[in-house]
What we know:
By secondary structure, the protein is α+β, with helices and mostly antiparallel strands.
Amino acid sequence: MDRPILFSTPMVKAxxxxxxxxxxxxxxxxxxxxxxxxxxxxxxxxxxxxxxxGEGDETVQQSIEYRADGDPNKKYKDLHWKPSIFMPRxxxxxxxxxxxxxxxxxxxxxxxxxxxxxVQPTLWFQPTKNEDDDLTLSDNxxxxxxxxxxxxxxxxxxxxxxxxxxxxxxxxxxxxxxxS
Length: 180
């Protein structure tokens, strides 16, 4: 069974470059007895896109431009990008096959797994909660690592609903890119 999965533009670039082979998705109900993701399942990637000719005509696939590719058709710069959630299946150019699934707390990510997330190592601090529920800085401030890079991008994408400091349970999904 194929199912859609959303990725931000930087993460689509990382998939296309072969740097991203893992993703984490929040377990919205920690009491689920089995994963909604199964080994062998295929995921079709939804990414930010736009039509630049033949608006919405699914027979004109070459008229799609993907934000992750930059802005090759500058003559269409006035056309608005469509959020990834609106990408139809036929417009998806990336298919992933799940090779492994596990569940863990977000902050249990290892340095090696953070690298598989396709991020760049950074100096970003990792906020944590102390006993008084105040945000504090962890010991990793000033330390360059993939884990810090992952924490940074997690906070940008998911921080409002699932901040890094809340340390939610996540599905850890390993995948490989396959022909669509």
